[in-house]
Amino acid sequence: MTWKVLFFDAAGTLIRPVEPVGAVYARLGERHGLVAGAEAMNAAFRAAWKATQSPLHPEDKPPVDDDRAWWRQVAAKSFQIALGKAVPDEIMEPLFAELYAHYALPEAWHVFDDVRPVLEDLAADHALHVLSNFDRRLLAILDGHGLRPLFRKIILSSEVGASKPHARMFAAALRAAQADPAECLHVGDEPTADAAGATAAGMRCFIVDRPATDFHTLKALVRSL
User: Fold this and answer.
1) Which of 63, 65, 163, 209 maximizes the CB count within 10 A of its CB?
2) DSSP for 147-209, written as a single string
3) How many angstroms separate the Cα of 85 from the Cα of each of 34, 81, 105?
């Protein structure tokens, strides 16, 4: 079956941080007197991310803060793990404000080289949408890289109030696209959030695992049908 609608995950699929997260956390932390190496911060961030439950809010009641509080929790836990002690609020607040603002900057993100040419090709005869566990900072990032006009809708977890693989995210995507699951292909890089979530919603999923499978592989698949 030919897919009419393509949904795309963002971080890890369309874009990635220019610098390792640990390097950014270590550099900005040092400005506030918190000394931890980039590798230690990177490991701490990964541990904090895994230990922090994904945001889930009551249906039709998305967070008023665009999930900023959730990101603060991850950041605070990252430094606590790396330093072995909690960071006082008077230090954590301005530090987190800098971290949060950094990741809103388009220049903090790199668009994978295979993304733009393939999206431009597929947008000619497919409806493209973003389906991402991100917040509204993603809009400025996509705008800054000139990608936003290629997408018809941007479905964000912070606006839905749930994160992939939650069924609510995929239901919101289908409503936004006004499409049936069988008409849709979801493109992402996470086996659980993307593949399992899409499959449960009745969609097919293409997993990006560069360099083995990239957007050129995706294009070949879509064009072969």
Assistant:
1) 163
2) -GGG-SEEEEHHHHTS-TTSHHHHHHHHHHHT--GGGEEEEES-IIIIIIHHHHTT-EEEE-B
3) 11, 7, 30
Residue 47 phi, psi dihedral angles, 5° rounding: -65, -40
Tens of pLDDT along 50-73? Answer: 999 999 999 999 999 999 999 999
| Nearest-angstrom CA–CA distance, 214 and 37 | 32
Tokens of 109: 């993100």
Chain CA centroid to CA 186, Å: 14
As a whole number of angstroms, the distance between CA 48 and CA 41 comes to 10
Tokens of 103: 């990741």
Three-state secondary-structure class, residue 125: coil
State which H helix or E strand residue 4 sits in.
none
Length of the chain: 225
Q: What is the pTM of this model?
A: 0.96
pLDDT at site 161? 97
